[in-house]
Each structure stands twice: as C-alpha cells, then as structure tokens.
Amino acid sequence: MSFFMPFIITSIAGLSTVLGSFVIFLRLKRESINKFIVFCLSLSLTIMIGISITELIPDASFGILTEFKLAKGIFFSILVFCIGIFSVYWMNQKIEKKGKGSQSLYRLGILSMMALMLHNLPEGIVTFLSSYQNITLGLKISLAIMFHNIPEGVSIAVPIFYATGSKKKAIVMSLLSGLAEPLGALLAFIFLRNFITDVMISFILIFVAGIMITLAIHELLPKSLEYHENSYILIGGGVGVILLLINHFVF
Questions:
Q1: CB contact set of 69 (below 8 Å; sequence gap of 6+)
Q2: What is the C-alpha to C-alpha distance for residues 188 and 209, in angstroms, rounded to an integer?
Q3: Is-contact 131 1, C-beta < 8 A?
Q4: How many whole angstroms from its chain centre is CA 27?
Q5: Are 159 and 166 a contacting pair, CB within 8 Å?
Q6: Which of 6, 21, 43, 173 could lock 131 by a disulfide, CB 3.0 to 4.6 Å apart?
Q7: Taking the domains of the chain in order of start, what are their residue ranges?
Q8: What is the pTM of this model?
Q9: Residue 99: burial class (beta carbons within 10 Å; 0-12, 13-18, 19+)
Q10: Own/partner pairs, 88-97, CB within 8 angstroms, 24+ separation
C-alpha cells in the first residue's frame, strides 16, 4: 500500500472537525443564543465522556492488560489516567496566566481544542496504520471517526465564537484540532511504522480519556449549568447519546 491513499483517508477523517464548526453560521435570535450554547456544551460533554468510557478506556485497558500482569496493568492504567486529569488543571492555569481567565467560554474552547488534538493524534496514527495494512478497515475506522469528529468541532467552535465574535478564529481552532490526525499519519509513516506498539497506543488513549472526562465534568458541565437552561442540557445529552449509539451500532 502506498502512502497517498491512507494519508487521504486519515486527513478526511480528521478535517471533518471543520464541518462541526459551520454551526456558527446559523442565524440565531438573541434569546436563543444561550440555549444553543448550552445544547452544544451538553452535546460535547456527552460525546467526550461517552467516547472515553465506551471506546478509549476499554480498548486501552485490553491492550495494557495483555502486555502486563493484572495488578501492574491496573496500576499503570490508573497512573496514566490521573496524569491526564492533572494535565487539564495544568493547561487551565497556563491559559489563565495569559490573561484569558475572565473569558470562560474562550477558555473552554481552547481546552477542548488541546484535549481533542491529543485525542486526534493517536486516532490519526491508528487510522493511517489500519489503512496502510487494509484499506477497507481503514475506511470503516475513518467513517466512525468522522461521525464523532463533527460534534467535537462544535465543542471547539461554539464557545470560541461566542467568546470572541470571530468566525475565523473559531474555524481555525477547529481546523487545528483536525490537523492532528494527518500529523499523526505523517508521524506514523516517517517514524513509527516499524516501532509503534499496541501498548504505546493504549497508554496514549488512557491519558486522553483522563483529559476528556475531566474537561467534560470539571469545565463543560458547570459552564452549561450557569445558563439555567436545564431542558437544553437534557436535549444536548440525549442527542449525544443517540450519536454515540449510532456510532457503535452502525460503524
């Protein structure tokens, strides 16, 4: 298999985050903006928690426990997960020191972008290597990634747009997150083709799960509750669950 086709497949999957950012072009009435923000935040946190619990943690745990004994594997999994948790607080402090602490929506968008870039990087590696070995398998994985990358693009673009008023900045941030996947493909082809291991990917996925769950519970959920639009929290969460179910049973 040549480099070109697996790279194209991986790039399309990653750049689908930009499709999610296009929701900022919806013309909403002023009284509907808060409801829309709450819906998007709730959708995003549901997707982040759902992907982590149903995909990242089970897949990573299986890879780690096949490499290490039970007690050692559990210890390493918990350790790496906790490192992911504390990294959210570390990133939060860094953003606040740069003077953006008062813009909580902006901070949420940046944190989401960082978390999802870390999430997309190993996804890019896995998609590329799968496509490199089996083009059919790579296409299936790519479709599944596209399906959950679109709401991830929403989770980045919406808070940044409503914090800054800049459509360009919102789209660029979503694009940067998506570019992590073709970057992962390049890294896989240049450096990792012969060295990447299942356990290495597993540790990355556990780390990312820690980041995403912490971001969802500690940042996205409290922010969505601030708007006192509880019905839209439930609607966003319900749509997120439906998307997760479709992702699992269709792809």
A1: none
A2: 21
A3: yes
A4: 26
A5: no
A6: 6
A7: 4-23+31-250
A8: 0.70
A9: exposed
A10: 88/115, 88/210, 88/211, 88/214, 88/215, 88/218, 88/219, 89/214, 92/219
